[in-house]
Design brief:
Helices cover about 5% and strands about 35% of the residues. The model is unreliable at about 10-40 (pLDDT under 50). It has about 475 residues and is mainly beta. The chain contains 2 helices and 31 strands. A hairpin with a 2-residue loop joins strand 21 (about 320-325) and strand 22 (about 325-330).
């Protein structure tokens, strides 16, 4: 018996027919800008992302238009008259127990010739998970409205095309958001719809006219506790942190440690570099800064049998010790032996290394349920001018199984989508050792429509990787 290796290197033109049609415009940004202390405030933004998510209904006859290039708020000429506008925002990824601080819908000016007085009333659809609009008659006004509403009276003139300012922003609609989120069956990730009636006319861009200037829902909220992260852990994730200058000893790495008083926010953490999302304290004396800062995050694993070894990427200026579920798993730029609060890093991190994510591989450590990742970051000396921390965690899957010939459709393949040049290497050899470093997934593989496994094309959608590499071992029995 022999195991034959099949290697394929398609070029980008082979993938052109499946280019992604649109990107979901889901964004979480930050209420507080870089370089300020976190207060556990978050901001969710979501634009209209489909033709069936903004619609207009004629007051007379109930005819629905879901392909208009603009949105009339609310008068659409003598032929149509007044109308009801529906706006649906999908994937509202806010924890159900979040405290809603503020919310509004932001429009952008499509026409600047309408000068009459305009006032509208905004309702939410009283539904757990709003459905997309259709062309069925009265598909907007037949929806159940919330008992609460918000008046947007005397809307200012919209005199500048494409303007996106406070004049095009609704009043605070947080009560409507609360009404929907308080429904017993509403859950994070559901859709939310707003219905608008009134008199007068202001014209805003619709998704079909200019997707980039389509209406956008903005929700500002607070969290009572740090969210449990999903796996894999990406850059700039949420971490709890302790930058008080206290010596926490050793118990702080344990899963049972009470961290409910720790503040939490997004990475990168630190000071002195100017690119921090969350500023850390270093004490009152800049020549005698705190040596150690502590970080914890929780990751939920539903099926640990699918995980093999872990791949940690750590940005640590200067050194760090990393723990999983209370056990130390690796050190970065730290000495051997016992580590205490005042232990300094081996050397100062300088230049490009300050932004590098250094890779460490750790054996299978995560288990089903909640796992705690704890990190202590140490300075090389108390006069250091900067400090930084962030981390990613991904996985190395178990080796892909060797299958017997013939090869079935939808089989698994190793793939390399990193944009590297493997010409001149032995990547086609049977015993190519780096194969185990590649990811793998079921075919079809690519990016765009109907892919079982989506591969990456690089950070620039206008300059995608040219070459992609695929490998699979097949057992020939006779």
């Amino acid at each position: 018996m022999t195991a034959d290796v099949f290697c394929i290197k398609p070029t980008s033109h082979m993938l052109q027919s499946t280019l992604m049609k649109f990107l979901s415009l889901f964004i979480i940004t930050f209420l507080i800008g870089p370089g300020v202390k976190a207060q556990n405030n978050f901001e969710f933004k979501k634009k209209i992302v489909s033709s069936t998510d903004d619609a207009e209904e004629r007051q007379t006859g109930g005819t629905i238009d879901i392909t208009s290039s603009d949105i009339e708020l609310v008068y659409d000429g003598s032929t149509v008259g007044n109308q009801t506008v529906g706006l649906r925002f999908t994937n509202i990824s806010i924890p159900k127990d979040a405290e809603i601080v503020n919310a509004y819908i932001q429009f952008a000016v499509d026409e600047n010739t309408h000068t009459g007085a305009t006032s509208v009333t905004i309702f939410a659809e009283d539904a757990d998970n709003s459905a997309a609009f259709s062309t069925a008659g009265f598909n907007i006004t037949n929806r159940v409205k919330t008992s609460n509403s918000v008046a947007w009276n005397n809307i200012p003139l919209w005199s500048v095309l494409n303007d996106v300012t406070a004049d095009q922003r609704t009043p605070d609609i947080k009560q409507l958001v609360k009404d929907v989120m308080s429904r017993s069956a509403w859950t994070s990730g559901n859709s939310m719809t707003f219905l608008i009636t009134g008199t007068g006319r202001r014209n805003a861009h619709a998704y079909d006219g200019n997707a980039g200037l389509a209406p956008e829902l903005v929700i500002e909220y607070k969290l009572k506790k740090a969210p449990v992260q999903s796996f894999p852990l990406s850059k700039n994730s949420v971490w709890m942190y302790n930058d008080s200058g206290s010596n926490l000893g050793s118990s702080w790495t344990n899963n049972s440690y009470v961290d409910t008083t720790w503040p939490f926010y997004f990475g990168k953490f630190g000071y002195g570099d100017g690119n921090e999302r969350t500023l850390l304290q270093y004490g009152s004396n800049s020549n005698n800064k705190y040596i150690t800062s502590y970080f914890r995050t929780k990751i939920n694993i539903t099926d640990s049998s699918k995980l093999d070894s872990l791949i940690f990427g750590i940005l640590a200026d200067d050194g760090a010790v990393v723990y999983v579920n209370g056990d130390e798993v690796f050190r970065h730029n730290m000495p051997n032996g016992s580590i205490s609060y005042n232990t300094t890093a081996i050397a100062s991190i300088q230049g490009s290394d300050e932004s590098n994510y250094f890779e460490y591989r750790v054996g299978k450590r995560l288990r089903n349920g909640i796992n705690v990742i704890a990190v202590e970051v140490h300075q090389c000396d108390p006069e250091s001018s900067d400090k930084g921390f962030d981390m990613t965690i991904s996985l190395k899957k178990p080796p892909m199984s060797i299958v017997n010939f013939p090869l079935a459709k939808s089989s698994e393949w190793y793939f390399n989508d990193k944009g590297v040049n493997l010409y001149g290497s032995n990547w086609t050899d049977e015993n190519y050792a780096a194969e185990t470093m590649w990811d793998y997934g079921k075919a079809p593989l690519g990016y765009g429509d109907a892919m079982t496994t989506t591969i990456g094309f690089g950070p620039n959608s206008a300059n995608k990787h040219i070459a992609y590499y695929f490998r699979k071992k097949i057992n020939i029995q006779d």
